Batch of 4 targets.
Target 1
Amino acid sequence: MKSSESNVKPLKNVMDLRRWEKILEENGPEKIRVYFRLGLDTGMQPAILQQLKWTDLKTEEQGEQLRQTAIYFEVPSRVEWHKPFRKIYLPPDSIKVLDELRRHNPNDIYIFQTRSRHALKNPRPLTIQRITLELKQAAINCGIISPADPFGVITLRKSFGYHHIVHGNWTVHEMMRYLEQRSLKITSQYLDLPVGVPLGCTPRNRGQKIKTGN
């Protein structure tokens, strides 16, 4: 992990995340709003998320009796040598914003394709720097961070992991595997987890109390 990323913490207050999303919905560019939604819904690595193409979006039929269509991104895997790609399934909110984005940009190659005149002949995605600037300015405008606070697009990935563990049924072990990290300790530090979060391989009891230390 880059040293600059190690200083970036997840947003631990759900209301802060909602305020951030609301100001993006009101004033943010559509592609930045979609990046926010996908980043928070999937926890994808920023570099992978930024480079996604519409052809990376796949569908599959699931279920024997009650058939339903699942939608996912096929993205590179860093740890499964025999499976160079893995599936990142999308929840309804992500599917909705992607559907709207595609309707508004039917000819784009990249999901977050730039409109820069320098990219007219050679399509490419928005830069991480541009995405970071837009997201940070929105976070500052709604008062959840100050201009001096450490911030990066990695905030979305860390917030995804933190809230799935602290408020959901994911253990640190499950999140470690999902984030493709090497140890429980690295994952706990990466997500700045509170004391008492179960590390094991089975989902925790929702009623179990966790010491937040905050």
Note: DSSP finds nine helices and three strands in the chain.
Target 2
Amino acid sequence: MLTGKTVVLGITGSIAAYKTAYLASALKKQHCDVHVIMTKNACEFITPLTFETLTGNKCLVDTFDRDFKFDVTHISIAKKADLIMIAPASANVIAKLANGIADDMLTTTVLASKATKLVSPAMNTNMYQ
């Protein structure tokens, strides 16, 4: 069902971030073009290199990264995406998206995209409630 689709995989700062490596690998096995965007807090739990190795694409973290071919990266990725999955999705990022706050690579890309979005909350139960 996802064969040949472009999937943007957003990873936020949660202990569950390490599990997303399995998701990235499974999406590649389904022949998806997987592009990972991590928040800076996610990088405290797992490294971008893990996802670059699994997907064959550069893992994006910094909105102002100067190591790129010239394009507006968050817009080009947003247009390319067939599906955006945010897993794990921290309370912080969910609140930003719900209120239109675009202050990092992940939130600017998600808000700029018309693609279907799947959000998997990962937080303390009290925070979720």
Note: The radius of gyration is 14 Å.
Target 3
Amino acid sequence: MGEVYDGPILEIDGLSISFFTRLREIPAVMDFSVSVKPGEAVGLVGESGCGKSTVALGVMQDLGVNGRVVGGSIKFKGRDLSQMSSAELRQIRGSEIAMIYQEPMASLNPAMRIGQQLMEVPMIHGGMSKREAHARALQLVTDVKLPDPERILKAYPHQLSGGQQQRIVIAMALMSEPSLLILDEPTTALDVTVEAAIIDLVKDLGRKYGTSMLFISHNLGLVLDTCDRICVMYSGEAVERGSIADVFDGMRHPYTQALFRSIPLPGADKTARPLVAIPGNFPLPHERPEGCNFGPRCDYFVAGRCDQGAIPMLDVPENTRHATRCIRHD
């Protein structure tokens, strides 16, 4: 580890990512900024297709052949990831930044026993001995609350349930004690009771290991429950950013408000607070409107103001930690 770094673990500043087809450039993420401090959990929320997974792939520098960062920067512990060699990136990806994907089986090798897969990480990246790695694997399988850890380590992935597989994937991600854990919809493939258990688990492990987390989800309830700060994304842009309390108590973007109205919150009275769908449709990346992306679906839209040029993130008065991309936020 060497010297102690005390700035943000992850700092994304003005990030723009596009995908290039033969015909056109399709902007997937525009002018996106968010930071994650040491030991902090930041939630990234938005509908499918808003660009949140693209941000995660940008952090992992894994945008494929067609994807490219066309503006802004992604810094990890103060160093720009785009300036690193592929060898440095490999080292960081394996040991310092870990990612948990939606589908646990995508991260597990069906032909290898669970124990071998877990031990591989610290033995390759951390130079651990086989005995140390086995002890650490046993510890983590216990930490992720799986029964009979010894038996689990000898099992193959197909012998475990979906929830157990996802716990193994979490254990695998934590094997090398990463500074940053990215969770991309980690509970999509699981049923609700398993989901709740996995979320509690992630919270506990985050506290135990002091891991910083970027938690990507379309489920607002989950993010409110797990994170310290939240960033709401719509159509490739951040539209609201702040602490959970700031955003929950004083939502300043019409999309955030609409998102809250359209989800069932725990303990809410369904008759007193009926769910309201957001009218209209999400704009396609190459058909975004002039001005505010949310304009065509917004109750507060004012022609001549909201459709004039790009709208910046603005600080909410009296609170520099809370920002929103709405010129009528008051």
Note: The radius of gyration is 21 Å.
Target 4
Amino acid sequence: MNQEKTSYSKEELKEFEELINQKLKVAKEELNMLKESLSKRNDTGTDNTASTSKLLEDGADTLERESLSQLAARQQKFIINLENALVRIKNGTYGVCVDTGKLISKERLKAVPHTMHSIEAKLAKK
């Protein structure tokens, strides 16, 4: 009788943990770069010359600052999701779909290692 697997082996979990740690390292480096860019943007010396080009520059700077802030927030959320995945590895719930209770495919976890949903559950929500 061929039973469906309900969890990943310790070796498989170790493999996922290494993948997540690599992604976490890169994500944290990218977040630091975004934060540095933001702090440099905020340090621009502004004098009170109210020319039209200055107003356009300020508008572009504000837009870029907002864009960098959104990227930083998204990166922060990604880091939290990766850290939560590491917690799930430790407590034995990693790789199990929260909706179906079935094992999430290895291919999906390699592509999106912080996911908590199988592709079936993800598609069903659309």
Note: The mean pLDDT is 87.
